[in-house]
Amino acid sequence: MLDFKIDEALCTQCSLCAKECPSLIIDGKSGIPVIKEGKEKNCIKCQHCLAVCPTGALSIFGKNPEDSMAVTNEVPSADEMERLIKTRRSVRKFKKAEVEEATIQKLIESAAYAPTGHNKNQVLLSATYTRAEMDKVREVVYNAIKKAKEEGKLDGALSLYGAFQHVWETKGIDVIFRDAPHLIIATASAANSNGVADSVISLSYFELLANSMGIGTLWNGFLKTVMEHVATELKGIFNIPEDHTIGYIMVYGLPAVKFARSVQSEGLHLNRIQL
């Protein structure tokens, strides 16, 4: 059930909801908007109709328009966004202090607003909230690598992870997590063809907001490789569904280093399409 409702006292019959609906299931030509007969199943749950209604007359899925964040002119300028993007750096040295739980929750909830293919919203975010939780993850991961090494499973390029485990065990140097206090893993069902891309986009939203709040982030390919090729049992240990594919992983925390300027990127590869 879409639970599509119109407050007729507020509705101006502007038809914006019908015009904006990507599935074209709203009839706004005959006065008060209604869902076209037999078309409910075509709804992709984007809530565009709720978001576009200028008077807050429309509700869907039981959502109260008053509970939505209002669009205002108080958004970062283009120059501010450019500076944020260009000065963002991968952080590999973190302070011992934890990020406040309320801040973590805000970051995670904001990541849920990232776009997903066909608006499926199937990204699962698995996260630690405290350094104690993170320390347990660290211990479990390094122990799993040690077990794989003892069983002779770290051949070729994977032997590098045996070296990481060795320096952790003998010197306390944490190459994989960089001693970060927090971790977030984005996964989605393998049956979702957009799942990996959706997961990466979700973490990109997470990262930009985190950096705007002075929180440093690091995309963690090391742990992704461990979970996919060294110790696949870690997904189960972390309560990630067996049928989920890892999109990407990020560690984060308060940075222990402050950068003075952006780098000068040489990473642009452009193909201008001119037909």
Automatic annotation (TrEMBL):
Domain of life: Bacteria
Pfam family, one: Fer4_9
Entry annotated with the keyword Transmembrane: no
InterPro entries per UniProt: 4Fe4S_Fe-S-bd (IPR017896), 4Fe4S_Fe_S_CS (IPR017900), Nitroreductase (IPR029479), Nitroreductase-like (IPR000415)
Annotated SUPFAM superfamilies: 4Fe-4S ferredoxins (SSF54862), FMN-dependent nitroreductase-like (SSF55469)
Domain 4Fe-4S ferredoxin-type: 2-27, 31-63
Keyword Oxidoreductase: yes
Keyword annotations from UniProtKB, A to Z: Iron, Iron-sulfur, Metal-binding, Oxidoreductase
Similarity section: Belongs to the nitroreductase family.
PANTHER family cross-referenced by the UniProt entry: NAD(P)H NITROREDUCTASE YDGI-RELATED, NADH DEHYDROGENASE_NAD(P)H NITROREDUCTASE XCC3605-RELATED
Entry protein name: Nitroreductase family protein
Taxonomic source organism: Carboxylicivirga linearis
Taxon lineage: Bacteria, Pseudomonadati, Bacteroidota, Bacteroidia, Marinilabiliales
